[in-house]
Amino acid sequence: MSSRGIRPLLLGALLVATLLTAAGGAGRAAERDEGPTARIEAVLDSLHRAAAEGDEETYFGLFTPEAIFLGTDAGERWTIEEFRAFALPYFERDSAWTYTPTQRHVTLLPDGRAAFFDELLDQEKYGVCRGSGLLRLIDGEWRIAQYHLTFPIPNEVAGQVTRWIRDPAAGTRWIFVVRHAEKNTGEDPSLSVTGLARAKRLALILEDAPIRACFASEYRRTVETARPVSRQSEVPVTGIPARDLDTLTARLLETPTGGAALVVGHSNTVPAILARLGIEEEVVIEEGEYGALFLVQLSPLGPELLRLRF
């Protein structure tokens, strides 16, 4: 797995979280005897409310047949039918997505049959976002012909972010975190035959990863799990006591940008390591679970977690 191969995986995992969302609003514009600006705002409010409530029919019914949805990623340009097919799994949940409008501007064109809009949206994970686009008046109903979701970048950090976009590896490091493989019994057991085979599979999965460091606790089972990757990447296994998370975290954060590190821990230390790397979601590893592989991407945009199995 190359560094260029890692980013699309995360961007793919990250694509679910970058869609437009918002809650609140009013009913259908046609049912309200108000001016065009208020009717347009009611359509946008209905759009956001439908997403928050997982109301697929209402949500997509507010677009024109030829509508285009533009997401935050450069590759996210969908026709409305393509966007609907992509979003269908999320509308099967109680809430597809939720962004809350905090500010909005509507500009009616002179002919009164089209309008531009832009709005600021608040989202729990991403903070301030911006939606903008075009509405058309069709048979007395305002419908969305284009919606474009963006992340406004403060000027103070724009240079850093755009440099990272041009060359993701320049400001990014990847940390693979895994529990040791299956073990024999005893006070400090070695890996079992099954565990040795799993360790070799781990090395196969990470064959193309730019491994620059390997870490394991002081126990035989963690060192033996890391050893095939160590030999393959020609990087020694560095032992750090399982309880010394401060030292381990500091060493992981020293991983050169553009490179990756492997750390082999235990069922009770892997969640703690992920938390130290900035992962907020709860991770639990069951006693008999050995095939979970966690990939943490550390970039200027913050830590992101991808769960894999091997």
Structure, described:
The protein is α/β, with parallel strands linked by helices. It folds into two domains: 148 residues, Nuclear Transport Factor 2, Chain: A, CATH 3.10.450.50; 144 residues, Rossmann fold. The protein is built from nine helices and twelve strands. The strands form two sheets. Strands 2-1-6-5-4-3 form a six-stranded mixed β-sheet. Strands 9-8-10-7-11-12 form a six-stranded mixed β-sheet, sandwiched between helices. Helix 6 runs parallel beside helix 7. The chain starts with a helix and ends with a strand.
Low-confidence spans: 1-33
Give the strand order of the largest sheet, numbering strands 1, 2, ... along the chain.
2-1-6-5-4-3
CATH class of the largest domain: Alpha Beta
Strand content: 25-35%
Described by strand count, sense and barrel closure, the largest sheet is: 6 strands, mixed
Query: Which fold does the CATH topology of the largest domain refer to?
Result: Nuclear Transport Factor 2, Chain: A
Radius of gyration: 24 Å
The count of helical stretches stands at: 9
Give a count of the beta strands, DSSP E runs of length 2 or more: 12
Which properties best describe this structure?
310 residues; alpha/beta; Nuclear Transport Factor 2, Chain: A; Rossmann fold; 2 domains; disordered N terminus
Please provide a brief summary of the model:
This protein is of the alpha/beta class and 310 residues long. It is built from nine helices and twelve strands. Mean pLDDT is 88; it is low at 1-33.
Q: How is the secondary structure organized here?
A:
Elements: H1 3-15, H2 36-53, H3 56-61, E1 63-70, E2 77-79, H4 80-91, E3 100-108, E4 114-123, E5 127-138, E6 141-150, H5 155-166, E7 173-179, H6 193-205, E8 211-216, H7 220-233, E9 237-239, H8 245-252, E10 260-265, H9 270-276, E11 292-299, E12 302-309
Parallel strand pairs: 1-6, 7-10, 8-9, 8-10
Antiparallel strand pairs: 1-2, 3-4, 4-5, 5-6, 7-11, 11-12
Helix pairs in contact: 6-7
